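As agreed, record copied across for absentees:
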Amino acid sequence: MRRLIVSEFVTLDGVMEAPGGEDTHPHSGWVFDYMSPEQGQYKVEETLAAETLLIGRVTYESFAGSWPERTGELADQLNTMQKVVVSGTLTDPAWQNTTVLTGDAVKGVAELKAKDGGPILVAGSARLVHTLLDHDLVDELRLMVFPVTIGAGLRVFPDTVRRTPWRRVDSLQFPPGPRVDVYHRA
């Protein structure tokens, strides 16, 4: 069984929306005040260790609109790795090595996890992450928490009455303040 890893940039108050300059939030780009080479290298290594990138359509459109034009180790990996987009509207993805998972997302992701292969990495994709968490498909959470609050916005965890225990297995601190907490299902 393949491991499904959700890796998110998140504010101290739990918002994951618009970390990189997207136009969906008035405080878009909130990660830029806290970037460091160490943090960048962590994201490169995390992406290199994954075999498949699983994302929703909105994140796909953002990534496909910027990564194909970039160069470097991270861009090379993102551009060449297998990408699976969960979408009911995307039909002809132009980004290299991209397929679309249509229909029942829960069933499709469960089947993807059951195949042979390396880790599946999820980035962004709030709606998809909520579905994955609600259906116990997430094996590991990597939350890069930034020391800033921005109020309203899309959050990592869905509104639910479910209780899901997690166990913190690692914590890494980066200058000038972001911290990654890694959790496994308890």
Notes: The chain has a mean pLDDT of 95.
